[in-house]
Write a structure and sequence with these properties.
466 residues, mainly alpha, 0% strand, globular
Length: 466
């Protein structure tokens, strides 16, 4: 009896080809991605609504939340980066018909999410004040920031588990449930924001802490839904932790792809922190502008990330199943969709930046700094649309190190150095040119590495396995 036959007999799961290996590519990508695109748009909406309500407290409150953004991004980096590793390894296992291995990867992923929460809870509780004091000596900003950051870190179990359970659903093609998870959590956050911030309906007025509380409550609700959906609806994997023991082999496999993604996304947090440091040397208003940009930018980037959430398991599955033509077709389609959407984003940022800032109770000073900032930064959107798809393909094909190299070169090798140099030579208004310059370099690296990955991993799929 072959090893494959053994695996299939030890799993209480019917052996049949997953839709990722059979459904027409156009329909498959839309089916897999559309629910995630919708949930990402809702996610982006709640991010913006969060800041809109905080801005009504004061500009200092908005600045404090903007300063906390790098830490929140770091949390997402660890959760989503590990999720990329889980997603890729699990989908590839399904493509190879190794169902027990797929379930083991899911259980180990849940274990890693719990461990990550413990680390961030400890760091957030003890070091939040130190973080803000390293950025500013404004006592009001520090007070707002510490109250916000301690809540979103200490009570962050929801965000790590939510991301993990989403990735498990995406890995098996059940993205509709991911949409319900994210959407429900985001809607609850939006509803609770004004209630907890301003003390409506008999609730205490919590201010900035209320925004943090609304965020973590929404995440916990999404986590709960994730547990329910994966237990009742995700029949291709078993997520029960009864009798579970961590597997060093599987964790190593997960992080082989996931760790470069963690580092890549963590670099974004470092970049944002350093950019805030550059901006606050001019004025705290510039930090608020950066914070608003990243909130607005999420409306442009989040749908593309939703697209890649559907793309990664498709590529990984068909890589495991050795379906070369399907890999190429889905990547071409994803690039067309991504770049087209980015063209829309550039158009909006170029034509109505003042309208965008009006949602955040923008002062004249904020408009003076922010309008040219949005117009300059948005020039980076179109090359980014191509790069996001290619980088996701690298991760799905097991070449996450290329994604890491591109991210380090783009953000720490180009963006921050250019921002520092231009700020010294030409002032704050020139800092924003670092974004399109860095993205152009990223595009060139993507083209070079994509040729190498194609030869190493995709072209060889034509050859039979020895």
């Amino acid at each position: 009896m072959s090893e494959k036959d053994t695996v299939l007999q030890t799993d209480d799961i019917p052996v049949q080809e997953n839709k990722m290996g059979t459904m027409p590519i156009n329909k498959l990508l839309i089916t897999m991605s559309l629910p995630m695109v919708i949930s990402m748009l809702v996610q982006a909406l709640y991010n913006i609504v969060d800041s809109i309500f905080v801005a009504k407290i004061s500009e200092n409150a908005l600045t404090a939340v903007s300063m906390a953004f790098p830490i929140q991004s770091l949390m997402i980096a660890f959760g989503a980066g590990t999720g990329v590793g889980i997603n890729s390894f699990l989908s590839k296992s399904l493509g190879e018909k190794k169902f027990k291995q797929a379930s083991d990867s899911a259980r180990n992923g849940i274990f890693l999410a719990f461990c990550t929460w413990v680390v961030f809870a400890i760091l957030g509780f003890f070091f939040s004040e130190l973080f803000f004091k390293a950025m500013t000596d404004d006592k009001e900003i520090i007070s707002y920031g510490v109250s916000y950051l301690r809540i979103v870190t200490v009570v962050s179990l929801g965000v790590f588990m939510q991301i993990t359970f989403e990735r498990l659903l995406q890995s098996t093609g059940k993205t509709i449930y991911s949409m319900f998870m994210q959407g429900t959590g985001a809607i609850i956050n939006i509803i609770l924001d004004p209630i907890l911030i301003f003390g409506l309906l008999g609730f205490p007025k919590m201010g900035v802490a209320g925004a943090a509380a609304a965020t973590v409550i929404g995440q916990i609700v999404a986590m709960t839904l994730g547990i329910v959906f994966n237990t009742l609806k995700n029949k291709e994997i078993n997520v029960s932790l009864i009798g579970f023991r961590p597997s060093a082999r599987i964790i190593k496999k997960i992080y082989a792809v996931g760790f470069p993604s963690i580092i890549m996304q963590s670099i974004t947090s470092v970049m944002t922190y350093l950019l805030n440091k550059i901006c606050i040397s001019f004025t705290p208003t510039a930090v608020s502008v950066v914070g608003i940009y990243f909130k607005l930018q999420s409306f442009i980037y989040m749908p593309i990330f939703g697209l890649t959430n559907g793309l990664v398991p498709i590529v990984a599955y068909n890589y495991g199943a050795r379906h070369k033509s399907r890999i190429i077709s889905v990547l071409k389609l994803a690039i067309i969709i991504s770049v087209s959407y980015m063209v829309l984003g550039v158009t909006i940022f170029q034509t109505v930046p003042q309208l965008l800032f009006s949602f955040f109770s923008a002062s004249d000073e904020m408009l003076r700094i922010g309008i040219p900032a949005l117009r300059i930064i948005s020039l980076s959107f179109i090359p980014a649309g191509f790069c996001i798809i290619i980088i996701s393909a690298f991760q799905a094909l097991g070449h996450g190190v290329y994604s890491l190299i591109i991210s380090i070169a783009r953000q720490l090798g180009v963006l921050i150095p250019v921002a520092i140099i231009t700020s010294k030579l030409f002032g704050l208004s020139a800092v924003w040119t670092a974004f399109p310059i860095a993205e152009t370099m990223s595009l060139l690296l993507c083209i070079v590495f994509s040729r190498r990955v194609y030869q190493q991993s995709v072209a060889v799929l034509d050859k039979p396995i020895n």
